Amino acid sequence: MSYKINNKEFGSVGEFVLQGRGCATITPNHYQIKRNDELVSGLRRTNSRPSSIIIPIKFIHIVDGSNGHITQAQREAQMSVLREAYGIYGINFEYSESEVVVEENSQWYRMDHGSFEEREAKTALQENPKKYLNFYTAGLASGLLGWATFPWEREGDFTKDGVVMLDSTLPGGDIQNFNLGKTAIHEIGHWLGLFHTFQGGCQAYGDHVHDTPPHAAPNYGKPEDGPHNACSVDTGNAPIHNFMNYVDDAWMTKFTQGQIERVWDQISLYRSEFLS
Ligand SMILES: [Zn+2]
User: Fold this and answer.
1) CATH code at 169?
2) What's the 188 CA to ligand 1 centre distance in angstroms?
């Protein structure tokens, strides 16, 4: 059965996922990964971990005529989804309805990852990324669900910091399989320093989190429990319910403790302004 997402047709949902599932967040290079790991191990030797943080979200909705409008009810539902995923770990989000920005621009509405339009839109609309998580929504280029910047990228490219979401991925949106607001959990996971659980495939470092088993490839849809893309170094099941995998929204339900430890490390290193 063919699958149409955001004006692009795929042979099936599986084909869409295998082409990247529309998460355009770029994998860092080996130098960046190694440097980050060194900073984290230094931090763990010297620092005690904070236990609570409040991250103000700045919703910036880019619209094109009648396309792309997000209701207050959708924003509130998205916040609830975020709180449910992160709140139990002391990672809290807030937003103010009076600060929501709606910007009409048909060029920016279809922006692609890394495009001129992305930079132009963010240059014009961004709030200080040391005070806000900039949360953009737009129609995006064909076939994309969203993308994020990693925390260590901010100092090198202040303008691009934030997450970009396909508008119809917010709760109540009209995109099949991905409209429960889980894309925002996933992209904010990147923004807080998490990799995909399948990063590095079966190579030892994987996603640099000790309690997510390595797996050879992303999982998609609603896989049953059992071995999926397991690697010989760890024959445990792939993390088929993890927010940083590629499964359907309905299937994404958890982070691991190791992922949350990594998030706190990354916050301490790169986003400490948000610590409460
Ligand atoms: Zn991703």
Assistant:
1) 3.40.390.10
2) 9
**Alpha carbon of 14 to ligand 1 centroid (Å):** 16
Instruction: Kindly state whether residue 112 falls inside one of the protein's structural domains.
Output: yes
Q: What pTM was estimated for this model as a whole? A: 0.92
Beta bridge partners of 100: none
How is residue 256 written in tokens?
């691991």
Give me the number of domains the chain comprises: 1
Query: Token digits for 82?
Result: 């975020």
Between CA 144 and CA 178 the distance in angstroms is: 11
> For each of the chain's 276 residues, which pLDDT tens digit applies?
676 766 677 777 667 766 656 788 877 787 888 888 888 887 777 766 777 899 999 999 999 999 999 999 999 999 999 999 999 999 999 999 999 999 999 999 999 999 999 999 999 999 999 999 999 999 998 788 999 999 999 988 999 999 999 999 999 999 989 999 999 999 999 999 999 999 988 876 788 898 998 888 888 899 988 777 778 766 667 899 999 999 999 999 999 999 999 999 999 999 999 986
Pick the catalytic residue: 97, 118, 155, 187? 187
Residue 20 sits at the vertex; the CA angle it makes with 136 and 198, to the nearest 5 degrees, is 105
Residue 187 is among the residues annotated as catalytic for this protein: yes
Q: How many angstroms separate the alpha carbon of residue 46 from the centre of ligand 1?
A: 31
Q: How far is the CA of 146 from the centre of ligand 1 (A)?
A: 8
